[in-house]
């Protein structure tokens, strides 16, 4: 049986136990698994690799979805901020127009419609008080203006220099 001795040494590379004194072979059967065990281990590693790849893909898709949702959230937040700023601008403009309307009404009531923009105050009462005080300072409403051209006229009233000349002549006749 000396011929049968070399045969196991030749199959050592195929997974049999190494001969004494040979260095351990990484592809050999260190764990005592045998061909079926190594095949099962290789299958498990392949499955683990496939599952890990699938897990990585799912995590990547989840991150992408979260980024997309975050982008929508950021977009909606920016849109809300823009609309809020526009709303504040419009509310300010409405408040300004309302105050101008109250000031115009108070100026008209006091008899100084052209000076509405000079009135001070926030509510109607303050504006009206300021308008009346301004009208009093300006002398509006104290005494009626005299009509220097009062009296019967034969012709249409003259304008400009002619009107002034006519008033002087009338005054001189009296």
Describe the structure.
The chain has 174 residues and is mainly alpha-helical. The protein has 4 helices and no strands. Helix 2 packs parallel to helix 3. The N terminus is likely disordered.
What keywords describe this structure?
174 residues, mainly alpha, 4 helices, 63% helix, 0% strand, disordered N terminus
Brief synopsis:
This protein has four helices and no strands.
Question: How does the SSE layout of this entry go?
Answer:
Layout (H helix, E strand, L loop, with lengths): L5 H5 L23 H77 L13 H15 L22 H13 L1
Which stretches are low in confidence, meaning pLDDT under 50 for 5 or more residues running?
Answer: 1-19
Count of helix runs: 4
Q: Structural class per helix/strand content? A: mainly alpha
Instruction: Work out the number of β strands.
Output: 0
Beta content comes to under 5%
Global geometry:
rod-shaped
Mean pLDDT, to the nearest integer, reads 79
The largest sheet, given as strand count, sense and whether it forms a barrel, is: none
Give the end-to-end Cα distance, rounded to a whole number of Å: 171 Å
Residues in helix, %: 55-70%
Could you spell the SSE succession in H and E letters? Answer: HHHH
**How large is the radius of gyration?**
53 Å
Oligomer: single chain
